[in-house]
Amino acid sequence: MRHVLPLGEDPAVDLDAALLWTHAAATTGLAGLAWVVQLVVYPAFRVVGASPVWPALHAHHTRAMASVVTLPWAVQGLTLAALLLRRPAGTTLPLLALTGVLAATTVVVTAASSVPLHTRLAAGYDDPLARRLVATNWLRTAAWTAGAACSLVLVADGTSSGPADFLG
Q1: Which candidate among 112, 117, 147, 155 keeps its CA 20 to 30 Å from the CA of 167?
Q2: Sign of the alpha-carbon torsion through 110, 114, 116, 119
Q3: Residue 26 lies in a domain
Q4: Segment 3-52, tens digit of pLDDT
């Protein structure tokens, strides 16, 4: 059964479709960002290395990434929580749960590995730490990529319309 949240008289928003599409947009965006970081940004760290520009480059990177990732990551988490609570018609609990596990993996790897490694790299470039950052970031990249695939399957299972069709 579709849950429709009216916005005045007309149009109405199909809340489940809006949640599914918004979650998919946030998660696929994060997956794309993870691939850029994995294949472009982190390898560039090793090119710059222990040069005089390292401290400024790394400080800029950490500030910029925080500003870029915060909103979509929050949207991913909030929409996933809403989807788990609402369980839109056509979606399955196992796929929603897997999507949750993948999202949680990105949080755990970030908190347990990426943040501590970046903290240590902020004190000065160290090639073994940079290599470890690249290696452990594969876990986040894989989790966001698999989460994006799951989110698109959830959209396909839980909607019969395109992203602009949930209005009206």
Answers
A1: 147
A2: negative
A3: yes
A4: 554 444 445 679 999 999 999 999 999 999 999 999 999 999 999 999 99
Q: List Cα–Cα distances, 161 to 21, 82, 133, 157, in angstroms.
A: 10, 20, 40, 11
Residues, the chain: 168
> What pTM was computed for the model?
0.87
- Looking at residue 160, the DSSP 8-state letter turns out to be S
Q: Tell me the residue range of the domain where 32 lies.
A: 4-162
- Compute CA distances 18 → 50, 58, 167, whole Å: 46, 37, 9
CA distance 72 to 27: 7
Spatial distance between the Cα atoms of 41 and 54, rounded to a whole number of angstroms: 13
- Identify whether 97 is part of a domain: yes
Which residues, at least 6 apart from 2, have a Cβ–Cβ distance to it below 8 Å? 14, 16, 17, 89
Q: What φ, ψ does residue 5 adopt, rounded to 5°?
A: -105, 110
